[in-house]
């Protein structure tokens, strides 16, 4: 015994084998280990569905406003002045106009009158004045990416795309379900998260109630 040191009182120290050490602190504690798996699944699935989400989201926005615009094509109008007078023969006019304008699609005359010839070539309608050489072209150009997105979204491709679309829908359901259980406590479904889930469910419910639903005229 060292002089000045307190005598042994017989009370075990916190780090001794008889006290509530680290091993005792773990007894009776069962940590939930499935949340990391849920978070990893939610993260990786979200990454995998980014491409399809852009396709369906952009197409959905485009088709929702179909009354205001053509979601697949944009119209254009251009005027050209060719060397006049043009040949008298209709077929010769068609050949001259398509050659000068670089049109490769098959062309045909749809209307003919003195001083006026209408030609159709692909998505183009061409109005020709053979006497002056004035050519007016009206046509449509496919909208970049959006037309393709609409084609996929509306499932107008091969039947194999149905499998892709169904897989995407199941993926979205999985994202929704895993999102519910990602976080515990006040930020999870029993707290803040539950409020947002309720708000998300309330939006379609209120709309159906206030609008009268599908049977309302």
List descriptors.
single chain, about 220 residues, alpha+beta, 2 domains, five-stranded antiparallel β-sheet, 7 helices
Radius of gyration: 36 Å
| Poorly predicted spans | 14-25
Counting structural domains, the number is: 2
Mean pLDDT: 85
Number of separate strands: 5
Concise synopsis of the structure shown:
By secondary structure, the chain is of the alpha+beta class. Helices cover 44% and strands 17% of the residues. It folds into two domains: 101 residues, no CATH class; 70 residues, no CATH class.
Write the layout of secondary structure elements.
Layout: H1 22-26, H2 34-48, H3 50-64, E1 73-81, H4 90-101, E2 107-113, E3 116-121, E4 124-129, E5 134-142, H5 146-153, H6 160-180, H7 192-211
Antiparallel strand pairs: 1-5, 2-3, 3-4, 4-5
Explain what this protein looks like in three dimensions.
This protein has 217 residues and is of the alpha+beta class. It folds into two domains: 34-69 and 145-209, no CATH class; 73-142, no CATH class. 44% of the residues lie in helices and 17% in strands. The protein has helices at 22-26, 34-48, 50-64, 90-101, 146-153, 160-180, 192-211, and strands spanning 73-81, 107-113, 116-121, 124-129, 134-142. A five-stranded antiparallel sheet has the order 1-5-4-3-2, covered by helices on one side. The longest helix has 21 residues, at 160-180. The radius of gyration is 36 Å and the shape is elongated. The termini are far apart. Residues 14-25 have low confidence and may be disordered.
